[in-house]
Amino acid sequence: MNSQNETRGLWLGLLGVAIFAITLPMTRLATGTADAPQLSPWFVTMARAALAGGLSIVFLLATRSRWPTATEWRPLAVATLGNALGFPLLIGYALRTISASHAAVIIALLPLATAVVAALVMHQRARLGFWLSAVIGAALVVGFSLYRAMQHSTDLALEWGDVLMLGAVVSAALGYVYGAKVTPTLGAEQVICWVCVLALPVTLPGTWLTWPEHSVHTTSWWALGYVGVFSMWAGFFAWYRGLALGGTLKVSQVQLLQPFLSILAAVPLLGESLDMVTLGFALAVVATVFTGKRFAVSAPAGTAVTPPAPRSTGATA
């Protein structure tokens, strides 16, 4: 692998991460808030996946991609439930009650959560340091959520938006791991395309049934277009190509920038302010993710798993 390809890979990886990072503020723009709702989370989930599904059909036909085999359909179905349906729906409802910056701290756990799910599903053996990092990262997210909850009320309890975001992290992690199971045989770009196509029997009628009956701001429609075309689809092409050119180990490190890019993007897009407490917690969570990834997770013989990077996902994001 020459230095020119490594450089191109890093830039493409950074482009993919930047696309995924903007997913959180764009989703909030699309759905609005509890006080000023725009597009419903159900409609955003269905419409963005349907839009990506249409683009995926064009890509699969243009590249003459083969059909998945019988053994590939089940992992693809789980990836569809996790990435195309579960993740966007949960973040859609969550972002009506919490800020995009707040959500970015929680979503920072996704790379580590993906590794945890891979270790459990693939029966991989992880070092003690990896599990300690996962526990510390989860504790930091819970602590941040409780801190924010106490600012809004005297009750020491997680807000509903935090619970939804944690569910979104688990949903995306499951989708990434099961998608990764078929990536070596089916191809990375083909996996995300088949995930979107597989969701079409649900997302096409779902889009029609949940179509808004009230007036919606133009910016919400543009935000929907972004999460459908870029977060759900095009971002993965840049990310996967970057991994292939620059190497998975090196390029995957740029995903540690994602929560900070989400927080920064929320400032001009949503008018949110830079909060040092939020930035501090995000930095601490990213540090645990970095530490956890330093402890190798060795797969059993005959199994090779490289979980895809998070969307802010699309894939997730």
Describe the model:
The model is unreliable at 299-316 (pLDDT under 50). α2 runs antiparallel to α10. The chain is an all-alpha fold and 317 residues long. The chain has a two-stranded antiparallel ribbon with strand order 1-2. The radius of gyration is 18 Å and the shape is globular. Helix content is 74%, strand content 1%. It contains 13 helices and two strands, in the order ααααααβαααααααβ.
Helix/strand class: mainly alpha
Major beta-sheet overview? 2 strands, antiparallel
Order of helices and strands: HHHHHHEHHHHHHHE
Range of helix content:
over 70%
Indicate the proportion of strand residues: under 5%
Mean pLDDT: 86
Any low-confidence stretches, pLDDT <50, length ≥5?
299-316
**CA distance, first residue to last residue:** 29 Å
What order do the helices and strands come in, and which of them pair?
Elements: H1 3-21, H2 23-31, H3 41-62, H4 70-94, H5 100-107, H6 110-121, E1 125-126, H7 128-152, H8 160-186, H9 188-209, H10 218-246, H11 248-251, H12 258-270, H13 276-294, E2 297-298
Antiparallel strand pairs: 1-2
Helix pairs in contact: 1-10, 1-12, 2-4, 2-10, 2-12, 3-4, 3-9, 3-10, 4-8, 4-9, 5-12, 5-13, 6-8, 7-13, 8-9, 9-10
Short description:
With 317 residues, this protein is mainly alpha-helical.
What tags apply to this protein structure?
317 residues; mainly alpha; 13 helices; 74% helix; 1% strand; disordered C terminus
